[in-house]
Write a structure and sequence with these properties.
CATH class: Alpha Beta
Shape: globular
CATH architecture: 3-Layer(aba) Sandwich
Order of helices and strands: HEEHEHHHEHEHHEHE
CATH superfamily: P-loop containing nucleotide triphosphate hydrolases
Largest sheet: 7 strands, mixed
Distance between the termini: 6 Å
């Protein structure tokens, strides 16, 4: 495990150091203007905390954040839950593939934090895009923790919204096993979240990205 560092709002000097580390270690592409571009993506099951961690990471790195679900909502003019209920999951997954491909192709941010949907990596096309063009962090939680969190936020999760509490754990287990291979296939780094605060997780992410010996295959923390 990498040594932990204190997480503070990163100064411009620290940012330049961080960017140099990224330049040496990260997956990157060149835009038409020869600007070095890097994308840090976060994946994991619904309720694991992707949006929260992505938002804080973007704040600490002074960079742009895109939440893929929110991007789709803006493009469609309706909530993800409404898309699911009126047009179905297949329609949504097709939108998801198109939106992700367009986002990665057109991005010109030097560093971009991308929060993926819980089911984004079911798609083989999406897995290939994420693995090729981003440094992907898989936030991994136990099914027990996920069930506890989703029990209190069912109304915001269309996939489990209509499932009664008694059947929720079994449904989460089934869905998790279906999605797990996609998370693991695309991940550059795997971080277990059980028993850790948001601050703990942010410390680990910054520690790993500040280290000089980032390697493949995926690192587990």
């Amino acid at each position: 495990m990498m040594p932990k560092v204190m997480v503070k709002i990163i100064s411009q000097r620290s940012y330049r150091h961080f960017f140099n580390v990224l330049k040496s270690n990260f997956v990157y592409i060149f835009s038409n203007d020869n600007i070095l571009i890097m994308i840090i993506s976060l994946t994991g099951f619904m309720g694991v905390g992707k949006s929260t961690i992505a938002g804080l990471l973007a704040k600490h790195l002074y960079c742009k954040l895109i939440d893929l679900d929110k991007l789709i909502e803006q493009e469609e003019g309706m909530a993800v839950s409404e898309i699911f209920s009126t047009k179905g999951e297949i329609y949504f997954r097709n939108l998801e593939e198109k939106s992700l491909a367009k986002l990665v192709k057109e991005n010109n941010e030097k560093i971009l934090i991308l929060s993926l949907g819980g089911g984004t990596l079911i798609s083989d096309a999406n897995r290939k895009i994420i693995k090729k063009n981003t440094r992907c962090i898989y936030l991994r939680a136990s099914q027990k923790l996920l069930t506890e969190r989703l029990m209190t936020h069912k109304g915001k999760r269309p996939v489990v919204d209509n499932i009664d509490d008694a059947s929720l754990h079994e449904e989460i287990s089934t869905l998790f096993e279906k999605r797990k291979p996609g998370y693991e296939a695309a991940a550059s780094i795997i971080i277990d979240v059980d028993g850790k605060s948001v601050r703990d997780l942010l410390v680990e992410i910054i520690s790993i990205f500040s280290a000089s010996d980032i390697k493949s295959p995926p690192q587990r923390v």
